[in-house]
Amino acid sequence: MQSLGIVARLFPLVVSGEKTSTIRWREAGILPGPLRYVCDDDPSKSVVVIVHRCTSMPLADAARFVGREKEWPDPVMLAGMREHYPGIELTDIVQVIEHGPPAGDAVYRTGG
Description:
It is built from 3 helices and 6 strands. It has helices at about 10-15, 60-65, 75-85, and strands at about 1-5, 20-25, 35-40, 45-60, 95-100, 105-110. Strands 1, 2, 3, 4, 5 and 6 form a 6-stranded mixed β-sheet that branches. A hairpin with a 5-residue loop joins β3 (about 35-40) and β4 (about 45-60).
């Protein structure tokens, strides 16, 4: 199953169904279908969602594409993305991954 790491502060938003998209740059491409998010700070926690669309576009277009342009004007979007990808620019092509909320027993724990 394809998987992506996610920072601990965003993990609960995926589990609750509030976060239904992610923007990635220069990472392995994701395809529609099952996706396991793994919490970066606690890899024993993960959640599975179903990806329904993956779209490549310039970072400058991503906020509008996911309906968050008022919350994420260009300077905010760029600063937020640079937390994870320090060299990213608004002109860089990113992958916008859209998915549904987790189904059933949302959080999976592995190990001790």
